[in-house]
Amino acid sequence: MKKLLSTIGLCAAAFAYAQGGTLILNNYSSYDFNGYIYAANPTPTGGTCYPIVGNGTPDPIVVPANSNTITGTQLEIRNYRDQYTTSLYPVTTWLVSTSPTIQTIPRAWNHAAVMPGGTISNNTKWAGSKFFMTDPANGGASVPLFNANIAVAGSCNSSFIPDSYSCPSGYAELFTITTGTTVTTYFEIY
Fold first, then answer.
1. Which of 144, 154, 160 is nearest to 174 (CA)?
2. Model pLDDT for residues 71-101, shown as the tens digit of each residue
3. Is the distance from CB of 115 to CB of 80 less than 8 angstroms?
4. DSSP state at residue 67
């Protein structure tokens, strides 16, 4: 009986951090989002955020202006693998860093390490983005000042990276909502 309870407890703990939930990016602005999104260890040890996973291909991810839930063109990533067949903006290669001394390792969207229940998937949670906005009405020119690094409050980088950004051209925020066991991280751009 003890072995059964231990096994159930380990499985529950593993799935509790199975990629830390869904990421939804809604771009309500009139500019195109161009960026890098990443997930990191939700319980860093020794001040490190490893493992860290971010998009490698495409780099950057581009989410067009006015892409939101109303039009159904939002970026939605439920997990590293299934996003490839369900997302309008799929990531084909994830970049995985397991420590500061090991170089980033490219992993295909269907690699065992990034599968739901895989080593990396079980130990990461959506944490932040480095992004810049471009103006589709101006030939894709960069929008002055509308670029930033932002992190989810309480994530490993949040002590030195804000969870929102504001400039004359727009506003962006990154936050997580937990309802029961469902965790959703929202990246809203206005």
1. 154
2. 657 899 999 999 999 988 999 999 999 988 8
3. yes
4. B
